[in-house]
Amino acid sequence: MTRRSAAYVYSLVAVAILILAISATPAAAQAFSTLHNFCTVTNCTDGYYSSSGLIQGTDGNYYGTAYYGGDFGAGSVYNITADGDLTTFYSFCGQANCADGYHPWPALVLGSDGRFYGTTTDGGANGNGTIFSLTGDGTLTTLYNFCSQANCADGYYSGGALLQGTDGNYYGLNSFGGLNGAGTIFRITPSGTYTTLHTFCSQTNCPDGIYPRGALVQGANGNFYGVTSGDGGYTSYGTVFSITPSDTFTILHTFCSQGGVCKDGFDPWGGLAQGNDGNLYGTTEDGGTEYCERRLNHSGPGCGTVFKITPGGRLTTILALPGPKAGENPTAQLILASDGKFYGATMYGGTHTNVGCAPAGCGTLFSITSDGALRTVHNFRGYLDDGYISAQLLQGTDGNFYGSTIYGGTIGYCEFGCGTVFSLSQGLSPFVKPIPPSTRVGTSVIILGNNLTGSSSVTFNGTAAIFTVVSNTEITATVPSGASTGEIQVVTPTGTLTSNVSFGVTN
Fold first, then answer.
1. CB–CB of 137/146 below 8 Å?
2. Do the beta carbons of residue 360 and residue 21 sit within 8 Å?
């Protein structure tokens, strides 16, 4: 495979990530560590340009994708320990004619069957990418080849991670293709049966939006929620939408609908996160009340916003990003952490500039409360240092945060650095994490954690469950009859661990 330019990859960054801005108030010193600089192995078999961020596996290690590199130069899946020991788990384009696909862009998802599920943007039988599953020993199965229907009516370029729904199937978004070329919503079963649920721009002037980005999220009411990014105003500034399990599609909010310089923001790119209050939280790359002049790609009104929206569609801007040193232009999806705060990243801004990210700044990591109190937790330093342009964060069950940067790091093989994997400590305690985050009574779930050997009890919102301790980092449990939405608690020999977010239970 040929290596594409950094400018090309940057354009994909603009297509696929959403990051959130930060408070101008500096935070106390935090424990930030670079765990790995990509392309430190001969021929970059460790991969480079990791746009995906990380997920946690049942073995306690962290898994991510690299857009380039690997054994065949076409991208890879890697795992990395909390101490920074990185192993290439799978290299794409190892099959004839790249039938396994290449250039994995979004994050993986760990299914309730213990397999990893993900997508590639290129290759496969039709050259437009694939949906795949990976077993724990690195065996890949191609579940679907995009553009299998005439004129790519099934869509292509799945730029966001898949979501496992409460029915056990996987749901995702294609940014392009479909009957109108503006993207689709799809469902795929674990065995590979693919269904298009919605085709965007299905009405005159595209009131339902165009170019969906990021991942879907399933609300406590069972509906799925997501965003379209729009095209900067030619047709749309972006939307928030919902779709029911029976495929009823609704637009909840159309951005740039509050007048002025789009005070409600525009161009949401990273998807949504559900808060403990039942509302949905997200960011817009542009808009707000501050004029940002230090952007690399273009100048314009607003440094971006953070918003919340009710399941019924009432949107509130909880913060308009205030400008350069506090971070600009969020493009990575928010996550809800165990301290009740949301964590995210900004593409630009912060206190450091360097080759590649100057003069806009190298970006930040931040936290924000549901009422808009923000804090910068890290300022990236860029090229030949700790990297820049961060993908979505992950909070590991050890309480620490883990992530990857697309550019920067200490390796000069790539024009502006090949990217990094990093960890960030905020002093948060260990917890347990259910896979999937919600499901039906009687369904088996995976519970991830640390030091689980010898656990004596698992409860779902107080209701005892039948469980098996698989390893020190994995428990399997069956959602018991009578369980309701709430915390999962695991009693271990060293104390009780609680889930970081409420686990959703449906009957």
1. no
2. no
Which residues lie closer than 8 Å to 481 by C-beta, 6 or more apart? Answer: 441, 442
Among 15-24, 100-109, 122-131, 272-281, the least confident range: 15-24
Summarised one tens digit per residue, pLDDT across range 226-255 is 999 988 777 889 999 999 999 999 999 999
Q: Sort residue 194 into left (φ over 0), alpha (ψ -120 to 50) or beta.
A: beta
Q: How far apart are CA 50 and CA 55, in angstroms?
A: 13
**55: confidence class by pLDDT, cuts 50, 70, 90:** very high
What is the chain's mean pLDDT, rounded?
90
Give CA–CA dist 148/159, Å, rounded: 18
- Smallest Cα–Cα separation from 67: which of 89, 43, 91, 85? 91
State phi, psi for 97 to the nearest 5 degrees. 60, 25
- Tell me how far apart the alpha carbons of residues 138 and 89 are, in angstroms, rounded to a whole number: 6
Give the burial string for 322-342 (b: 16+ CB within 10 Å, else e): bbbbbbbbbbbbbbbbbbebb
Return the SS3 of 152. Answer: helix
Q: How far apart are the first and last CA of the chain?
A: 48
pLDDT digits (tens, 9 = 90+) for 338-355: 999 999 999 988 999 887
Return d(Cα 13, Cα 301) in angstroms, integer. 20
User: Cα(72)–Cα(399) distance, rounded to whole angstroms?
Assistant: 35
Of 411, 404, 470, 406, whose CA–CA distance to 435 is shortest? Answer: 470
- Candidates 186, 207, 187, 342; CA nearest to 279 is 342
Q: How far is CA 200 from CA 81, 140, 364, 456, 493, in A?
A: 40, 31, 33, 49, 52
Tell me if 240 sits within 8 A of 272, measured CB to CB: yes
pLDDT recorded at residue 259: 65
Report the C-alpha gap between 227 and 328 in whole angstroms: 20
Q: Is 5's pLDDT higher than 60?
A: no
Nearest residue to 389 (alpha-carbon basis) of 74, 88, 6: 6
In degrees and rounded to multiples of 5, residue 367 shows phi and psi of -120, 155
Beta-sheet pairing, 457-460 with 280-284: unpaired
Q: Are 30 and 401 in contact (CB under 8 A)?
A: no
